[in-house]
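Deviation from plan, reported transparently: adenosine-5'-triphosphate complex.
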Amino acid sequence: MAPATGHAPAIMVRGLGLSMDGQRIFENLDATFPAARLTVLLGGSGIGKTTLLRLVAGLLVPDAGTIAADDGVPLSGRVAWMGQDAMLLPWARVDDNVMLGSRLRGEALDRARAHDLLERVGLSASRAALPSALSGGMRQRVALARVLYEGRPVVLMDEPFSALDSITRLRMHELAARMLAGCTTILITHDPLEACRMAQALFMMGGDPVRLSALPAPGGVEIPRAVDDPALLSAQADLWRRMLAS
Ligand SMILES: Nc1ncnc2c1ncn2[C@@H]1O[C@H](COP(=O)(O)OP(=O)(O)OP(=O)(O)O)[C@@H](O)[C@H]1O
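Because the crystal trials were delayed, the predicted structure below was used instead.
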């Protein structure tokens, strides 16, 4: 099964300006998120990472500037979102949670696709369960299946694995990297290991006004990288130094 439908565009942010409650968040911010790659976005707490993702998702409207796909087609309707909280409906079964988007849009439910995705995330046996019967890691796997069910070429992930234990997190990296191949993905994380395992492009957000600085990703587009890869370990140490210095 293809991981996503539609062309995965590059996303271009140009001259972005935003203030909220009298506080300037962005001023003349530029960034380019490459097509069909997983971009990791790092940066200190409160710098504006989630706000940038919300702007890309169309959940917020900027005061100035543009956010556009490089193919000229509007981003609207081409974006899926996954956050730290799985945000499952507690009264709906796992498979119904995966198909929630179809139900909300009044479309036919693609049960076969939902079940296939649940199998791929290792949750076939739980597809009729309620979310309350699942662990945190299982809930995040349902959320991943739901994002993939949407088949959108652009996927925005706001610290999706941060609430998971470290082993489950490593497993989620395997799954997400495999299943998001071909999508234009932006992943926010505070975890240097996650950044170095997953990034095909890596940006650090910081400064006043806020800017995005490109950092070298550990090399190669094959992700996730092995936790003991020397290039990863060296990049991770470098990231820790940068984060401690910022
Ligand atoms: N709805 C809102 N109204 C007013 N200010 C907001 C709103 N949402 C966010 N902000 C402010 O915008 C700034 C950026 O917040 P944002 O959540 O984007 O940061 P972040 O980098 O994602 O932080 P963290 O890593 O802690 O999640 C913060 O100063 C925050 O207080």
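The chain has eight helices and nine strands. We consider this an acceptable substitute for the interim report.
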